[in-house]
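User: Structure tokens for this complex, please. No commentary.
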Amino acid sequence: MRVLTIGLGGAGSRVVDNLYDHDRRSKICCMSAVAIDIDPNSLLQLRHLPNPARIFFPRVDIADHAQVTDVIDIEEVMTRLQSMDTMEIDAILLCCGLGGSVIDIAPLIIDEIRKSYVEPIFALAILPCLDEGKRVSSKAADDLDMLQELVDAVILFDNETWSQKIRAAVDAAETENTGVIAQLRQTPAASDPRTHYNMLNERVARQIGLLLRAGEFNESGLDVAEVVLDAGEVLNTLKGNSFVAVGYATERLPTGWLNILRRRQSLKDFIQGSQEKAARIISLAKKAVYEEISVPCDLTSADKALVLIAGPSTELSMKGFQTVRKWIDRSIAGLEMRSGDYPVKNTSFVGIIIMLAGLSNIPRVEELRDIRTEYRLECEEEQLNVEEKERLRDEEAALASSADAGLPEWDEDPGFASPLESAYLEESGYVAEMPAPEKDEMITLPGGSEGGEKRRDDTIEMIPKPDKKQDDGAVILPPRQGGREIDLTGSASVTSSVPAPKNATFGLKGISIEKTAPKDDAATYSALLKPVQRPKDGVFDGEQVTFDRRVQRPKDGVYTGDAIVLDRKTQRPIDGAFDKFGLHVRGAAPAPKDTQLDQTGRGFARPGPRPKEAGPSRGKLEVIDATARQKSGEEKKPEDDPDDGITWIR
Ligand SMILES: Nc1nc2c(ncn2[C@@H]2O[C@H](COP(=O)(O)OP(=O)(O)OP(=O)(O)O)[C@@H](O)[C@H]2O)c(=O)[nH]1
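Assistant:
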């Protein structure tokens, strides 16, 4: 296919330079190329691109840290692109190294290109090595995400994988060539960055270059293909906004007179030869997918695939080709499978290209993203550390300055006044209103909203802390022996773990101590209530107090409220209570024996038959003359109150 190739930055420019070289050497000439960079040395070192194809944007000054987007003039780039012969292009290929700075211009360029060209835009993205650091890997992950959004496909080439391969190959060659002459003949060490990058770029140019040339012919160099793969098929395999990996493997054909003679011998040799050719194609295909792929990936996660075999037409085994086709077709997740052959005259190599598109499982991409996450966390942590250090430094400086001025520490804090000052302010009524601290909205602490409007919580109802001087109905239990006076309403501690008591539990109108002890985490309540034996005089001033059976009998005159009701199971109602209404209780509600109470001093809330409700319709109640009854009742009433100290009111 015919492509316009744009190299961005050092890596992109060098890759484009190599691709251009391969294109010109193949005599296909299907490529127009430009290299854009802000580093003049990088552009000067290119070996093949013509000078007009090198677009240089100088920084205003070397130490200038202006953004690349400010340095590179997009309009100028577009003018240069439009001046090139781009009439017949099938696609635009943007080559760039991820993690660098010049790639930042990619979104702007892609945006402008989309305005002027309808052809698909692909990116050839070079993933950085791990030893370049987390910052570069993290930026590479960002760049990758950005490219994936903007272009029609991202062809990946992994420097890390290929650097390791190159180093391993160089080491292996070094151990083999131990002789002095062999060592002298050795290629320059791969540890030299420029040589290393040249090796990598050579690899990229071979893998991608052949793919770009698929479907392009030159009269002298090419035979007629049996299965023609045109540019459209390559483009359709690439398109889809996905990641693409390209596997490429070659093998040198046996040469020499002996081989030529062997080929012409017999039919048996001919058959054997064709099997060898098929086996070669199959083994090359495996090598391309598993070893010589631009980025290691999971074949089964590919959505589309393209198989292209290239070499002298006599060496391209159709049997081997069909077997490979079937294997790839069955292995990929998707259904789109394209293939073709690319017969080349005058070559001693057989090669195969397998392109996998729509890849979802690429471990190196995941690794870059993981590194990015890690790097961001580290940066955040570092930032926090710096801020913390700055804060400490400021505090120290403030302390030092206050110490120099001879002022006490609290002077610095506008919220606090010295004891003398506060006394004066209080006296003069000039105490500043402190802003209420933010509270948990689920818990309203008593006494916290003095003077202000009390905010009520549906889940917890607490009684406002009473003013100690006024008796406003607070219920104060008598102190435990040796303990202090306990104010239930004021001192009950509320923690979030304690289940909220029911609203009526500590209501002013009625206090009921439940039979079952509160759970462990409500220890405050149970600890306070259990040991209570005997309240003293005048302790209970509420209107109505309900006791559970565990409460012992209080002494005379203890309760001075309006009315005290003994638990539900209260046995004895006030004498003559029903008389008021002219009712007389009979049979079903026997009055508890007074003597029993007297003797034991206990008996509150003892389980017993409950007085039944007085219903006028019931036959057991009898309506009598109320006045007469009252009179006789007065006559009969003993002098001493049989309740032995409990005053019944109302
Ligand atoms: N394959 C290959 N990768 C390269 C080459 N040069 C650089 N890289 C990789 O590409 C990444 C980006 O490098 P460059 O393209 O040189 O960066 P830049 O965009 O020019 O910007 P700077 O960061 O300022 O150099 C690097 O981190 C390397 O991993 C190269 O010649 N070949």
